[in-house]
Amino acid sequence: MDTYVKAFVVGGLICxxxxxxxxxxxxxxxxxxxxxxxxxxxxxxxxxxxxxxxxAGAGATVPLPGFGYSLAKATIKEVNDNGFxxxxxxxxxxxxxxITAAIFxxxxxALIFNPKTKS
Length: 119
What we know:
The chain is mostly helical.
């Protein structure tokens, strides 16, 4: 149960920060998305995001900074394994599973719920 509480609190705090940024600044949701992913990438590359992942699990890996962290982690691994080429292939390999799942489940939901455009 403790793991779920940690994940909920950390994931919730990340969402609260995003909501505050939307309410109190002129940043658009798209720009906040980019800031969060970039911040996750930088913190992941510096090894500063790993302790948060160890503490909160999915509460740190599912939100947007977690996506950036995954990109950084996969790129570092790929560079260590394949050298310079890993800079270009690491992020693709690290994100492929999540992107594929998003496309697949989005398609399934579109089939089930028959989406319509707003009028």
